[in-house]
Design brief:
Elements lengths: L21 H13 L2 E2 H8 L7 H13 L3 E6 L2 E6 L3 H30 L6 H18 L2
Antiparallel strand pairs: 1-3, 2-3
Helix pairs in contact: 2-3
Length: about 140
């Protein structure tokens, strides 16, 4: 899976806006919906719900391509854009990046919080976590 760099993460936002601006998030949603789209197609879809300049959409899509979130291919005089990752893969990449950063500085606090928030019915999860920890210890001793 392609790795995506997350420069910031806003916990107080919802969905993709945690790691994207509002317009970037809307464009990514449209890119997943349309699979492959030109700037004009995305622009026209956005115009249904907001007033926006074509050049703004073009700039944001170019930046999303430069960041690795969209892939661009030439189609005559225009470019077609498509997401480099599925939404699920992108969320997994975000989670991996964020948790990796937390592990270095906040491992004890983060994992304590996860465990503290499990209910008594989550015995299966606790058992799986225990097994993962044991497997990690065994690999470290080999």
């Amino acid at each position: 899976m392609k790795k995506i760099k997350v420069n910031f993460f806003r916990v107080n936002k919802k969905g993709l806006e945690k790691a994207f601006g509002k317009l970037e998030a809307e464009i990514m949603e449209l890119a997943w919906l349309q699979k492959k789209a030109s700037v004009r197609q995305v622009y026209q879809a956005l115009c249904q719900s907001r007033k926006i300049a074509y050049t703004t959409v073009m700039t944001v899509m170019t930046r999303l391509a430069d960041k690795g979130f969209l892939e661009r291919e030439k189609d005559g005089k225009r470019y077609l854009y498509r997401p480099t990752l599925s939404k699920e893969e992108l969320n997994q990449s975000f989670a991996r990046t964020i948790l990796s950063g937390m592990t270095k500085d906040l491992a004890i606090q983060a994992f304590s919080h996860f465990v503290d928030n499990l209910s008594s019915e989550d015995e299966t999860i606790l058992n799986k976590l225990e097994k993962l920890i044991e497997e990690k210890r065994n690999k470290s001793h080999v």
